[in-house]
Design brief:
3 helices, about 140 residues, four-stranded mixed beta sheet, alpha/beta
């Protein structure tokens, strides 16, 4: 009986210790400069690019006027905080990580739009009507 109690206490301690571990997701702080509007793309895992800077435990980046930034850093599922952004000014946030067949991260992207909903919708319409989609009948392929 005593052995069962000792094992039960040990299991409870291990479960408690596991629950106190902090979330392993990295923190990413994105600083939006005043007056910036448009698309932003962060290319991650770029071999010759500088790593993202850190302030404490958080990675920090400032959106450049060009809207494009490359880094050697690869962040998987970061918790993102936007600074200097007004409510309703960040649209279409997406993050993807490219991996090898065995799951090793080798690159990725973070993308979003800064501006009004109307500007974002107009930008999305440009992408959707850019002529890059192909009609299956023109390709010789047919739908199912």
């Amino acid at each position: 009986m005593r052995k069962v109690i000792v094992i039960s206490v040990w299991v409870l301690l291990m479960v408690g210790a596991a629950c106190t571990k902090h979330d392993p997701s990295p923190q990413l702080v994105v600083e939006i400069p005043a007056g910036f509007s448009g698309n932003f793309v962060l290319e991650m895992g770029t071999k010759d690019a500088a790593p993202l800077s850190k302030q404490g435990e958080a990675y920090v980046l400032t959106v450049p006027r060009s809207g494009k930034l490359a880094t050697s850093t690869i962040l998987q599922k970061p918790k993102v905080e936007f600074r200097n952004a007004t409510d309703g000014s960040i649209w279409g946030y997406s993050q993807s990580v490219f991996t090898t067949g065995d799951g090793i991260a080798v690159g990725g992207k973070v993308e979003f739009f800064v501006g009004t909903r109307r500007d974002y919708d107009a930008e999305e319409n440009k992408k959707n009507h850019s002529g890059t989609s192909m009609d299956l009948s023109e390709s010789g392929l047919t739908g199912a």
